[in-house]
Design goal:
Elements (H helix, E strand, L loop, with lengths): L4 E3 L4 E3 L13 H13 L6 E10 L4 H15 L4 E4 L14 E8 L1 H14 L3 E3 L9 E5 L19 E8 L23 H12 L2 E3 L2
Parallel strand pairs: 6-9
Antiparallel strand pairs: 1-2, 3-5, 3-8, 4-5, 7-8
Length: 209
């Protein structure tokens, strides 16, 4: 069962919290405890705050330009350039050299792209892809696996990394300019909550590994 998403400029939330849900990896007791906690306090319901798409090409300037064109086509958003932090002679990379194109998506754009990107990996995520706070990342071998894309000989074929940040209300104190503070451990999202959220919103299957 997939729960309908509520999309805002701040993030992607589940529109409602079901009474029960069958997880592909979590025990029924774990799912029941999480859902009960979410229903009791809506401030604890996690959401997808952003999706970061990255294509790293190394020191090839021509491929970087093509990667930027591709990212803009896939996301309808202009990518930014990331530069090397240090010189790596073995790869022919110099410090401050442009090596990657990155796009950060939020709200509706994040939901739309993530829905397509998950199809490229057959809607399957590994448990090891999730960190202790519910954030996760996965790779796409070829952008042609994303629905709606066609091969363009002028661009070629690129792989990419997709990273997803999971938060809940209250995380703003980590980013504000005045009186910035850390989030207490008890308010941080957990790995299990991140996995359950993805199963509910996108119907993904999570496997061991």
């Amino acid at each position: 069962m997939v729960v309908e998403a509520m999309i805002t400029s701040k993030g992607v939330y589940p529109k409602f919290i079901p009474e029960n849900f069958k997880s592909s990896i979590l025990t029924d007791d774990t799912v029941s405890n999480i859902l009960s906690k979410w229903r009791q306090n809506y401030m604890l319901v996690p959401f997808i705050s952003k999706v970061v798409v990255n294509i790293c090409v190394g020191g090839a300037q021509e491929r970087l330009e093509k990667a930027m064109v591709l990212l803009e086509q896939l996301t309808n958003q202009k990518p930014s350039i990331r530069r090397a932090k240090k010189t790596i002679k073995e790869f022919g990379i110099s410090r401050r050299q442009p090596i990657a194109a990155v796009v950060t998506l939020r709200g509706g754009k994040a939901y739309t792209f993530l829905s397509k990107a998950l199809v490229a990996v057959n809607n399957v995520l590994k448990e090891s892809s999730f960190d202790p706070f519910g954030n996760f990342a996965f790779g796409i071998r070829e952008h042609l696996l994303i629905p709606g894309t066609r091969y363009d000989p002028d661009i070629g074929i690129f792989g990419m990394d997709v990273a997803v940040a999971i938060e809940r209300k209250g995380y703003r104190i980590m980013y504000r300019r005045i009186k910035r503070s850390d989030i207490p451990r008890r308010h941080r999202t957990t790995k299990e909550e991140g996995m359950l959220l993805m199963e509910m919103l996108f119907g993904v299957k999570i496997v061991k590994g």
